């Protein structure tokens, strides 16, 4: 059982109110930072902690902060990315809903470190009820003197706003988020310039995920070195994992990075094993956009080492036999799941959410969806499988923002690891005519051999 | 000034120049195609991805290659940058992919499209596209819309280059049109069907690389290659007044702005010149417009190549094959 940093107090009744939160040690990091530390010292602590962005890319947060153009005469902004829309990820919602003051505390400390006088929380439109929770919490923080002019009697002043989006997945991409926050159409910008140089209103901006900003609180309270002791190598600290799918105990778990994947799936403390006593077929380890891995490769790497819940271990083997930790949306599939149907669902999502700005993503996502629809419904050809691989390859890396990659990776990996299943769909269209075909008759490896005619 | 090498040819350009414009200064085959970039429209480019190039060395200071292919129209050059365009198989492969994507939902109704013959997508597909499509599904379709009384929007043909929205944004006093919707079902639209009604809206037709925006006064009148393009001008208080008259006999079928060798308008014209002066007497005709001999519009317009320029061009090609830097290309002889 690891130490809980973000969710330790989450079940205390009334923790969403300022008084209870404060009584349980809340806002200590603001007091510590504003009264005893300089902004650069706070940044230094975050650097020391080795905290990596929790939104998906895993970019070191301290480094991102140090890239911020501090010489610019323009105002600086800290923007919290709460546009959590990745299928399979629901951790930020849990934090903001249950313990909103943690995020606000992180925003104040973070804004102080970056020298921001105005900060924003950009939240997805579907979380409208959380907007109200956050706004109430912000009101309380203003009343208690933690926001507004001269916080705690220091010269530092900060205003914090919550801005709801309109529910587009693409607005979780940081530059599209900034466009949307400026009141424009949420199309990603071309980079460079990066937001650290020209972000919100062309001013230097840092965009961080909710969990990253919340993690600043324990880092400042306990010190960066202490935080870095948790975890393995360059994956430090704790991570919220949103576990879903065919497991006994779906939910949010705060784990120490470095936990073996096998323990996470099978121990009673976490997911509690596969439901209904079935076998595990595949896992999507970090939200829908990361490559899917079959059961054997998720538990052990291609080299036979035990796979751990770290950025490095999950990525071991590259995209040939590895995946990514991503945003921590851990989806488990049992043997009755149809990989083709699942992939079609993902492809439909990316087709629907593509902003339509650049051609490979706009046209390619729709094409992949249509081909997958055909295969899943028993109208595919053998050549369609290679066609999908080729289309995915032509999207990947050729688009403005990572949505193209996110649409292409699941397709490429599903075909790489489960090609027989696609071939089965093409060969036996009558068997897949029922949408629940694999629930009736799971697709097992013996069948694999039969299907390819071996 | 920055020195940049594109496909082995070195060129010195001003700081902040994009790779595409540096390549245009060299000229010839190594210029990447561009479907959405338009040099006279600010912020255009980066969207269609046909101009992707490979940067094998970022700069003299930091010679690491860039990890992905970059959009040459929006990436500024650095001193000592080394770029591969047509010499990189990876670039050509990606470009082929992008052309396929662009044609995916394009109706390919060229036989009835007014843009045929002067269509950038047609040229691009001819050069980089595959002969057959791998796409079996239905293409997206839209109803045709009138944008004002002079412009027809045929959204089915649109490749979403956003050029016309930049014209609306930057050339016309108030923005009345933009993009609605998302993904492959997004469409160019005037907000709540409001007509574009201002003096410069006609330029949207000229910047459109395909037949999505066409001139209603010219629709179905003639194929462009049956017309005689003539350079002409008039004194216009609103614009430069420099136009091309597309004539059949004495009749002026269409008036458009002048496009350069990359299909870009440098001097925009007003709607009065475009629509209200379809009489040759209103214009001072300068003479026949030079049409590139590779263009289908040049059909029937044989030009006698000047022997001296032809000799120079042959010498230029020989020099190129020897790997020497190219002297200034002759615009009349290069595609």
From TrEMBL, chain A:
The reaction(s) catalysed by this protein are: a quinone + NADH + 5 H(+)(in) = a quinol + NAD(+) + 4 H(+)(out)
Record key words, sorted: 4Fe-4S, Flavoprotein, FMN, Iron, Iron-sulfur, Metal-binding, NAD, Quinone, Translocase
Quick check: keyword 4Fe-4S in the entry?
A: yes
InterPro entries in the cross-refs: NADH-UbQ_OxRdtase_51kDa_CS, NADH-UbQ_OxRdtase_suF, Nuo51_FMN-bd, Nuo51_FMN-bd_sf, Nuop51_4Fe4S-bd, Nuop51_4Fe4S-bd_sf
The coenzyme or cofactor needed here is: [4Fe-4S] cluster; FMN
Keyword Ion transport found: no
Give the SUPFAM superfamilies listed for this entry: Nqo1 FMN-binding domain-like, Nqo1 middle domain-like, Nqo1C-terminal domain-like
Instruction: Report the protein's function.
Output: NDH-1 shuttles electrons from NADH, via FMN and iron-sulfur (Fe-S) centers, to quinones in the respiratory chain.
Query: Which protein family is it in?
Result: Belongs to the complex I 51 kDa subunit family.
Which PANTHER family has this protein been placed in? NADH-QUINONE OXIDOREDUCTASE SUBUNIT F
Name listed for the protein in its UniProt record: NADH-quinone oxidoreductase subunit F
From TrEMBL, chain B:
Instruction: Look up the record and name the cofactor or cofactors this protein needs.
Output: [4Fe-4S] cluster; [2Fe-2S] cluster
The question of whether Iron-sulfur is a record keyword is answered with yes
| Segments passing through the bilayer | none
PROSITE patterns given for it? Answer: 2FE2S_FER_2 (PS51085), 4FE4S_HC3 (PS51839)
Q: Name one GO cellular component term.
A: membrane
The entry's localization annotation reads: Membrane
Q: Which InterPro entries match?
A: 2Fe-2S_ferredoxin-like_sf (IPR036010), 2Fe-2S_ferredoxin-type (IPR001041), NADH_UbQ_OxRdtase_ferredoxin (IPR054351), NADH_UbQ_OxRdtase_Gsu_4Fe4S-bd (IPR019574), Prok_molybdopt-oxidoreductase (IPR050123)
What SMART domains does its record include? NADH-G_4Fe-4S_3
Domain 2Fe-2S ferredoxin-type spans what residues?
2-89
Could you tell me the superkingdom of the organism this chain comes from? Bacteria
Q: Name one GO molecular function term.
A: oxidoreductase activity
Q: What is this protein called?
A: NADH-quinone oxidoreductase subunit G
Q: Which UniProt keywords apply?
A: 2Fe-2S, 4Fe-4S, Iron, Iron-sulfur, Membrane, Metal-binding, NAD, Translocase
Q: Which family does it belong to?
A: Belongs to the complex I 75 kDa subunit family.
Stretches assigned to the 4Fe-4S His(Cys)3-ligated-type domain: 90-129
Whether Isomerase counts among this entry's keywords is no
Principal localization reads membrane
């Amino acid at each position: 059982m690891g130490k809980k940093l973000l969710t330790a107090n989450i079940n205390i009744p009334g923790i969403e109110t300022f008084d209870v939160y404060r009584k349980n040690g809340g806002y200590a990091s603001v007091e510590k930072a504003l009264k005893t530390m300089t902004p650069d010292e706070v940044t230094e602590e975050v650097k020391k902690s080795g905290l990596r962005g929790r939104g998906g890319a895993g970019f070191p947060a301290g480094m991102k902060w140090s890239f911020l153009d501090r010489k610019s005469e323009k105002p600086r902004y800290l923007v919290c990315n709460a546009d959590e829309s990745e299928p399979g990820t629901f951790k930020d919602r849990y934090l903001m809903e249950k313990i909103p003051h943690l995020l606000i505390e992180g925003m104040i400390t973070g804004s102080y470190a970056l020298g921001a006088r105005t900060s924003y929380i950009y939240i997805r439109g579907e979380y409208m009820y959380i907007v109200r929770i956050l706004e109430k919490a912000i009101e309380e923080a203003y009343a208690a003197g933690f926001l507004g002019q001269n916080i705690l009697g220091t010269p530092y002043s900060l205003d914090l706003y919550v801005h709801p989006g309109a529910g587009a997945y693409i607005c979780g991409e940081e530059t599209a988020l900034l466009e949307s926050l400026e009141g424009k159409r949420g199309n990603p910008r071309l980079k460079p310039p990066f937001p650290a140089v020209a972000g919100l209103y062309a001013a230097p901006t840092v965009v961080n995920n909710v969990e990253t900003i919340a993690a600043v609180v324990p880092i400042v309270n306990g010190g960066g070195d202490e935080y870095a002791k948790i975890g393995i190598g360059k994956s430090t600290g704790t991570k919220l994992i949103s576990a879903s799918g065919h497991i006994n105990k779906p939910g949010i778990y705060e784990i120490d990075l470095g936990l073996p994947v096998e323990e996470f799936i099978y121990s009673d403390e976490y997911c509690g094993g596969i439901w209904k006593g079935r076998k595990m077929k595949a896992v999507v380890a970090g939200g829908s956009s990361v490559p899917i891995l079959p059961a054997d490769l998720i538990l052990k790497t291609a080299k036979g080492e035990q796979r751990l819940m770290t950025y490095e271990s999950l990525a071991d083997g590259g995209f040939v036999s590895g995946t990514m930790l991503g945003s921590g949306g851990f989806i488990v599939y049992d043997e009755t799941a149809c990989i083709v149907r699942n992939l079609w669902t993902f492809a439909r999502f990316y087709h629907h959410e593509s902003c339509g700005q650049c051609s490979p993503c706009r046209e390619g996502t729709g094409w992949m969806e249509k081909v997958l629809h055909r295969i899943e419904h028993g109208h595919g050809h053998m050549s369609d499988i290679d066609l999908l691989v080729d289309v995915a390859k032509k999207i990947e890396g050729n688009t403005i923002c990572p949505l193209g990659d996110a649409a292409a990776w699941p397709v490429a990996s599903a075909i790489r690891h489960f090609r027989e299943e696609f071939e089965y769909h093409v060969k036996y269209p009558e068997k897949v005519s029922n949408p629940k075909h694999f629930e009736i008759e799971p697709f097992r490896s013996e069948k694999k051999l039969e299907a390819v005619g071996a | 000034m920055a020195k940049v090498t594109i496909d082995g040819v070195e060129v010195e350009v001003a700081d902040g120049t994009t790779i595409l414009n540096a390549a245009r200064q060299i000229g010839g085959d190594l210029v990447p195609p561009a479907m959405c970039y338009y040099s006279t429209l600010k912020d255009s480019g980066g969207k269609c991805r046909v101009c992707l190039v490979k940067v094998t060395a970022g700069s003299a200071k930091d010679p690491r290659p860039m990890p992905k292919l970059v959009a040459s129209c929006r990436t500024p050059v650095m001193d000592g940058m080394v770029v591969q365009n047509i010499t990189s198989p990876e670039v050509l492969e990606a470009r082929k992919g992008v052309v396929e994507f662009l044609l995916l939902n394009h109706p390919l109704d060229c036989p009835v499209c007014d843009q045929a013959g002067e269509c950038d997508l047609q040229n691009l597909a001819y050069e980089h596209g595959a002969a057959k499509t791998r796409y079996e599904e239905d293409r997206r379709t839209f109803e045709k819309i009138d944008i004002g009384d002079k412009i027809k929007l045929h959204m089915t043909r649109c490749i979403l280059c956003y050029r016309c929205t930049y014209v609306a944004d930057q050339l016309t006093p108030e923005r009345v049109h933009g993009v609605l919707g998302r993904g492959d079902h997004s469409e160019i639209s005037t907000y709540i069907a409001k007509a574009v009604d201002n003096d410069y809206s006609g330029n949207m037709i000229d910047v459109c690389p395909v037949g999505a925006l066409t001139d209603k006064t010219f629709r179905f009148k003639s194929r462009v290659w049956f017309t005689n393009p003539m350079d002409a001008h008039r004194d216009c208080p609103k614009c430069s007044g420099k136009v091309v008259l597309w004539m059949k006999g004495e009749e002026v079928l269409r008036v458009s702005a002048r496009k350069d060798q990359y299909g870009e308008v440098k001097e925009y014209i007003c709607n009065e010149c475009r629509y209200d002066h379809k009489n040759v007497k209103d214009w001072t005709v300068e003479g026949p417009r030079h049409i590139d001999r590779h263009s289908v519009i040049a059909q029937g317009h044989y030009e006698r190549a000047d022997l001296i320029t032809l000799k120079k061009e042959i010498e230029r090609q020989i020099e190129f094959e020897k790997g020497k830097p190219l002297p200034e290309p002759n615009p009349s002889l290069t595609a």
